Description:
This protein is 41% helix and 22% strand. The protein is α/β, with parallel strands linked by helices. The mean pLDDT is 89.
Amino acid sequence: MKRILIIEDDFDLAIELQRYLMEYGYDVQYLNSFDRVMEDINSMHPNLIILDINLGDKSGYKICYHIRNTHKIPIMFLTGRDRYEDEVKAINLGGDDYLRKPFSKEVLLARINRLLETHSFEYLNELNHGNIILDISKSMLTNTVTGHSTNLSNTEFQIMHYLMLHKNEIISRESLMDYLWNNKYYVDENALNVNLSRLRKKLGSINEPEIIKTIHGKGLRLC
C-alpha cells in the first residue's frame, strides 16, 4: 500500500483529503505540527508528500529544500499561491508538481496516481547507455570505464532516467517539461535549462560531457 504524507496547516482540509484518498486504497497520514518534519518523514517512509507553502511560521519551500537534500520522494505542492513565480521557485527547489487551491479532488487523485507511477522505480535497479550506468536506487551515474560516479538531484535524475528510457528517440523539450512537471504552460523554460546545465556539468565530471546532444529545432537525445 502506497503511503502519502500531507503537510498542511489547514487540518480540516488534511483530514478531508485523508478520508478521500484512503477510499482509493492509499495509506494517508498528516502532520499535526511542523517542528520535526524531517524526523517524521524518516520514520513514516512516505511514497509521496503533499506540501503546502504557507505553514504558519514554517515555510514549505524550506521543507522541500531539506527533503531534496536526502530524499527523492515525489513532492506535490498544494497551495493557494497563484503567482507563476511561486510555481517556478517550488519546481526549482525540487517539487514534482504544483496544484493551486481551490482544486478538484479528481484532478488531485489523477496527479497523485501519475506521480507514483512515474516514480515507481522499484522494478529496475539500473539503466545503461554506452559507458554510463544509472543506479536508480541511489540516483547515481557511473562511468564504467573510469569508475567515476556522481550523485544526481531529483530533477536531474528524472531527466536522465527519461532520456535513457527513450535513448533511441529525439525528445522534444516540451515533452520533457510535460514529463517532469505535468504543467508545461506555467513552468518557466529556464527551469529546464538550469537543470540540464547542471546535469551536463555532472556528466562532464565523469568524463561524459557530450552524451546529451541538442538537435536544433527538435529536442534532445542521447548519443
